[in-house]
Amino acid sequence: MKKNLKVLLLGYNGANNTGSEARLLAIIEDIRAILGNEALITIPTLNKENLERYLKEDKFLKVAPISSIFFFDIRKLVKEHDVLLLVEGSCYMDTWTSALLWAFLWATKCAKDFKKPSIAYAVDVGHLSSFNRWLVKREASKTDLILTRTESAAQELQKIGVKAPIQTTADCAFTFKTEKDDDEILKEIWPESDSGVVGLAPIDFYLWPVVMRPWGKKENLYKWPYYYSRSKSRVDGSERLALKWAEEADRIIEKRGKRVALICMEELDEPLAVCIKNKMKKPEMVKIFSSRKYNASTMTSILRSLELLVTSRYHAGVLSLEAQVLQIAIGHDTRLRGFYKELGLENYLLDYMSSEIWYKLEEKVNELLENPEAQQKLLKDGFIQHIGRARKNPEILKGFLQERGWKVKT
């Protein structure tokens, strides 16, 4: 049996994204539980400094900076490792940018070329252009195993025509463990929050997708050559979105006597959060919590201390579920749709394009604050179901590696 397996974890790493951070740390735990602490793990990133906020390099864990034009770097890394794991949850979608999708498909192709086994580890499927659907069908079929985190994602891959073996588990972040010192962190950071806190985790839908171009306005630059999609109509859309969130936050404060936490699950959510707070009548009742400042453990503990969560971020819903925090989603892609379908919460999923969305949101917030029992059993049962499925991820990975002759822990 082979020893000291070299594992490459390719994902959205180093972006100060709470969900990606929680997933990555949970996956590293999975690998070490299977292979021991001497497994050689490499994590590529566009931003090494951000990644090192919560991961320290040592002889068994390496952070590998890669270029934003990633083809050569990824191919070299795949060649140097024994197995490839795609660890980004939003793996097979172009909602955010086609470039990220192409990076994952390119790595899969390279693994096939070099006869290295590859596995997509608890991933999702979302919007794809016609070209990208064709590309996913062709390249994702070269994966040795795809684990999807919802049944609807598995069905969509099959519908696209992907021929790789597919199994459904659940998101790795369900097994993420917080630090004990963070259990009461919200009260420590915000002593005035005793009256109860409603969390809002918004996304600026009008920034996406990020597109590749040789130049553009500096304020729209993500990382060259990637720029946010911006135009006058999109900027106006962002302003309207911030105003509506601000109005709902003020209503929660004035009518319900609650404080409001603006949760930035990714650093990129901060400008919208600041804009929302600036438009409010009662900004003194609001605090912004950003993944730029707080690590995944702290952010998760804050989420689990909320009385109610209104989220456009998938992982805010996932990470708060263990504490059975009441939740409502304003969705714009398939991730929350699939998740809420499995939880039985379809009535609490609102479409951000609906003309009645803010009226319906007010209605749902009132309903849950007045009658929390309407959700609590669904949340409890949903967590039990998902944590059980998430624990299958390392079991399946262990069997996958054993079949290929690698030594695993017994």
Automatic annotation (TrEMBL):
Keywords: Transferase. The keyword Transferase applies. One of its GO terms (molecular function) is transferase activity. InterPro entries: Polysacch_pyruvyl_Trfase. Residues 17-333 form the Polysaccharide pyruvyl transferase domain. Pfam families: PS_pyruv_trans (PF04230). The keyword Transmembrane does not apply. This is Polysaccharide pyruvyl transferase.
